[in-house]
Amino acid sequence: MPTPRETILAALHARLSALPATALRGDVLPERVPAAGLLILRDGEPGEPEVTLSPLRYHYQYRAEIEAVVQDSARDSAFDTLCASIGAVIAADRTLGGLCDWVEAEAPRPVDLPVEGAAGLKAAVIPVILHYSTADPLA
């Protein structure tokens, strides 16, 4: 049986997979970026949980990361569209079907990356904060 963390990350990945961009989980950046863009969900950091007693619960603000990459002649608008679509997917269901208490994305910090002999890449890491509670930090 998967842990709450894994279930939540899988649900987030499933939501990202519904977008036109290719959505990967924990993979390396491929040699070619698909025309619709590329998203790579990274597991990130759980952080230090707040703990309540009676009943014992660990309250996490888990920080996952989405790497968003586009390679297009109109990469600025393509990147903006991709980021807006990520925001719309998260805003459509902020609890991931009841798996989380709340999901929120932080603003991306885009960078332009030159590619020799091809259109440059525009990329950013988009932090996603997953608020959830569990009875066991390892389960």
Number of helices: 2
Large-scale geometry: elongated
Element-level helix/strand string: HEEEEHEEE
Mean pLDDT: 93
Helical amount among residues, as a percent range?
10-25%
Rg from alpha-carbon coordinates: 16 Å
Q: Please outline the major beta sheet.
A: 7 strands, mixed
The fraction of residues in strands falls at 35-45%
The quaternary state of the protein chains shown equals: single chain
List the uncertain runs. Answer: none
Helix/sheet category: alpha+beta
Amino- and carboxy-terminal Cα gap: 9 Å
Number of DSSP E strands: 7
Describe the structure.
25% of the residues are buried. The chain is elongated. The chain has 139 residues and is of the alpha+beta class. A hairpin with a 4-residue loop joins strand 3 and strand 4 (57-71). Strands 1, 2, 3, 4, 5, 6 and 7 form a seven-stranded mixed beta sheet that branches. The model has no long low-confidence stretch (mean pLDDT 93). The chain contains two helices and seven strands; from the N terminus they run H-E-E-E-E-H-E-E-E.
Quickly describe the structure.
The protein contains two helices and seven strands, in the order H-E-E-E-E-H-E-E-E.
Descriptive key words:
139 residues; alpha+beta; seven-stranded mixed β-sheet
